[in-house]
Amino acid sequence: MHTILGEHYPPTWQGIPRGMSKEDYALWQIYRLTEITGAERLYFNVLLGKGQDAGEGYTEEERKFWRERTQLRADVVVEYPDRVRVVELRVNASVSTIGRTQAYQMLLKDDNPFGKPVETEVVTNTEQAIVREVAERSGVKYTVLKR
């Protein structure tokens, strides 16, 4: 299994997720209060994909560290009764943010410990027509929040 979920939290959890930037946390504060309804669990910094192997000459602990260090990290995975949603929080999201969420979706579909359909969402603070259009055409939910 390549997906590492880590600890889960209830949707009402009000702590600061480990490793989340101040900018992303500001978006998260608004998002969790206004956009999450019906969720069962939250996961933060979810590791996706195989990562890279450091190779021979390293201890298993060092190899594990490097694999995890080189895996992609999804900001938030929200688990609902019938689906999971990978949420990418990004101030001034760009077109490349959409590609990142597509990679997350592909990796989570390939190794899905939930056994549920996977959705993706970009949460940002600025409206950009091209980003919205690329998101819509790619099946990525695009949410703009004012901080």
Summary, kept brief:
By secondary structure, the chain is α/β, with parallel strands linked by helices.
Key attributes of the depicted protein:
147 residues; alpha/beta; six-stranded mixed β-sheet; 4 helices; 34% helix; 24% strand
Count of helical stretches: 4
Stretches where pLDDT falls below 50 for ≥5 residues? none
Query: What is the residue-averaged pLDDT?
Result: 93
The 3D shape can be described as globular
Percent helix range: 25-40%
Alpha-beta content class: alpha/beta
Q: Note the run of SSEs as H and E.
A: EHEHEEHEHE
Instruction: Provide the gyration radius in Å.
Output: 16 Å
Largest sheet: 6 strands, mixed
First-residue to last-residue Cα separation = 37 Å
Approximately how much beta-strand content do the residues carry? 15-25%
* Strands in their spatial order, largest beta sheet: 1-2-3-4-5-6
Number of extended strands: 6
Question: What report would you give on this structure?
Answer:
The chain is of the alpha/beta class. It is built from four helices and six strands, in the order βαβαββαβαβ. Strand 4, helix 3 (95-110) and strand 5 form a beta-alpha-beta unit. It is globular and about 50 Å long.
